[in-house]
Amino acid sequence: MKQEINLHKNEFLEELMEFLRIPSISALLEYKNEVNRGAEWLKASLIKAGLENAEVIETDGHPIVYADWLHAEGQQTVLVYGHYDVQPADPLELWDTSPFDPVIRDEKIFARGATDDKGQLFIHLKAVELLMEKHGTLPVNIKFCIEGEEEIASPNLAPFIHEQTDKLAADTVLISDTSFIEKGLPAICTSLRGALALELQLETANTDLHSGSYGGGVPNAVHSLVRLLNSFHNEKGEVAVENFYKGVPELTDELREEVGNIPFDEEKTKRELGLDALYGEEGFSFQERTGIRPTLEINGIGGGFQGEGLKTIVPSKSEAKISCRLVGDQDPQEIYRLIEKHIEVNTPVGSRVSLNQLVHANPVSIDSTHPDLQKAADAYEKVYGVRPLFPKEGGSIPIVEVFARVLGAPVVLMGFGLNSENLHAPNEHFHIENFTNGIETVCEYLQSL
Amino acid sequence: MKQEINLHKNEFLEELMEFLRIPSISALLEYKNEVNRGAEWLKASLIKAGLENAEVIETDGHPIVYADWLHAEGQQTVLVYGHYDVQPADPLELWDTSPFDPVIRDEKIFARGATDDKGQLFIHLKAVELLMEKHGTLPVNIKFCIEGEEEIASPNLAPFIHEQTDKLAADTVLISDTSFIEKGLPAICTSLRGALALELQLETANTDLHSGSYGGGVPNAVHSLVRLLNSFHNEKGEVAVENFYKGVPELTDELREEVGNIPFDEEKTKRELGLDALYGEEGFSFQERTGIRPTLEINGIGGGFQGEGLKTIVPSKSEAKISCRLVGDQDPQEIYRLIEKHIEVNTPVGSRVSLNQLVHANPVSIDSTHPDLQKAADAYEKVYGVRPLFPKEGGSIPIVEVFARVLGAPVVLMGFGLNSENLHAPNEHFHIENFTNGIETVCEYLQSL
């Protein structure tokens, strides 16, 4: 297929750039119309690829886009999942070029969503399109189920999957929304951390107060928040919420070896990211901390006067966003209750805290010896000349666990991104080489099933 | 004068509202023209009051407005100081009416700057105007020196005072920029806390990172800031910066009694401000904590994602604004060095901190037995029917210490505000009764000198 891909490369990239120009930010209400536009664009593109029964399915949130081609009688059915929504783009001032005006530089395409997940998702559309063009048919039955709410934790896809088990029934679920170990070294992820996210608002008074007249004599909403948030970790970098680690798998020598096999270049990572030092739970390696250990991270904080110059107030309000990554048998709802209790116990006197749960997702594990995963590894090897590794990924794709459980099918996490591609950050990009090689790999894989 | 004041009341209020409509926010660069407009308006108003030699004097920052009347041969010279600049108005959403569109409600005038300090300053202009109108002359020589940078700690007034000691020479400095104990109970402040303000920026990486891929394995700029800021206070509510309390006067029984004599209604304060509890340094009363003890307050904090919804990042940048109130022999520059050292020692591994000093001011004490202060007390007593108290104020008016030291004159802090008037906060207002009684009190005072 290499030849066909090269022939179409510029045309495919033009189309992908069109997709990336749509600011389909699911988290921000004011982008609702753009998310809808993304869904319609995707539907048209699926039809162009040769898929049938394409529809934009409304939900209580953003729509799901579905299409299929089911004429490979007696053959396996593959369900392709992906998402057309993207993360917010701020801080805008740190982007070298506009996030929704894609540009190609150094054989990379720069835009919000380039690697997460529009670029990776588009690989599957183009693989199907090329196979159809070349053979007039497909080697397998295929279904596309693409959502617009992955970046806000898929609140409407899970119920949809539960309701539409017949429509979605498949032998394999195929997803490209993960990363290589490093450039040239592909990976099939076999574990995803679960997630829990919440926001917290703290209040001490009904108005900000003059720090001269009241300073030193009344609670300060930023002091209280700082004290409360600081209580979430101890000096060893461990999460200090009582019973937080219940359900976390014991770190056996075998697991430690498996995780240790995934290469990690500490000096390179520090250099590239501008880190003076790594940091985390004492007694664990970077791969363990980010792959198989749970975390609690503050994602944002705000309170008091943040403008230019000076405002000598005692702040009356503050807030924080917190998210956890969970592993093993940690249950997000139970962790939420533990955090709630921790906050109750640790909130300083004179502060009122309100809590709001944003998302929750269970951790998931996939058996790397399953034939569908091994065939995926073969396809990578043919294209990239190297057999992929089976790492345990630190991120969460909440819906993977639901697909695996409800459809009872193995999930093949056939990623084509790189961790260095600034996903969720300014200057997100996608390597064009992995876009074209990705199309070839997916073609190989579908033909091998 | 009561009669004359009543005759002119509506006209004076109209003029004050005109003054309040000018958003002369000194802290925000984009308001530079408005600050200039405030200065020109004030100059015209001083001329209207009968003052001479009125000028708008340019500085490296915002202008100083000067005017005088020096024909009371053989009489004392009084220098009136005030400021025509105001605090920023945010958070705008908490104002019931627009901050720069003054309205009168329940015999109060609502606007940013109503009490701090345009309303209080305007009392002096109108007192002079009425005395001139009635007698065609003034009982004392008078100079007005009004600045536009008080809310940013007077960076250009101090050098001006040093350079213009002849121009500003006076027997008494008269300032109305402080508050009553409570409605109906006036106060002449005899102590002001010094101040030191700084901003702090913390960085861990050159970009925000995905909390799935990196969470738990790299430093988090919000965690680091939270840990660092939490180290500034201990469990007793004391400032934990080494040697911070050096130079703080010992709390003698006499001082404790003096401070304790100033009435304070804890339940009323809590109810009015929506406080569940008071909080501060262990072993001290509210009056002591806010009047004669030093403080370190975080005025604002920010970092990571603060938008609507969720963004699962490990933040790479965070920042905070901090200010101290200082007492006794605490030297702001020395305190800055102690804080710098504290930050050096307490910054978590993997975090880089940069520091920027915003303002500094020395504490000041004024002798309440000085005849000029006693005459001021007499004037209050005549108008309000009650002798004022001599409290030690928690706020800072940095220039007071400079006036006292450079001009060698007693400073009479003849305030007409109320602490409940939301200075530096939304819905700032000024009681019209204190505006009119204030004019009468100042007339009485000037005539008594």
TrEMBL record, chains A, B:
| Keyword Metal-binding (UniProt) | yes
One example of the protein's molecular function in GO is: dipeptidase activity
> EC?
3.4.13.-
Pfam families in the cross-refs: M20_dimer (PF07687), Peptidase_M20 (PF01546)
Q: Is the Metal-binding keyword given for this protein?
A: yes
Top-rank taxon, per record: Bacteria
So where does this one cross the membrane?
Answer: none
Residue ranges constituting the Peptidase M20 dimerisation domain according to the UniProt record: 193-347
Keywords carried by this UniProt record: Dipeptidase, Hydrolase, Metal-binding, Protease
InterPro entries associated with the record: Cyt/Met_Dipeptidase (IPR051458), Peptidase_M20 (IPR002933), Peptidase_M20_dimer (IPR011650)
Against PANTHER family, the record matches this protein to: BETA-ALA-HIS DIPEPTIDASE, SUCCINYL-DIAMINOPIMELATE DESUCCINYLASE
State what protein this is by name.
Dipeptidase
Q: What is the lineage of its organism?
A: Bacteria, Bacillati, Bacillota, Bacilli, Bacillales
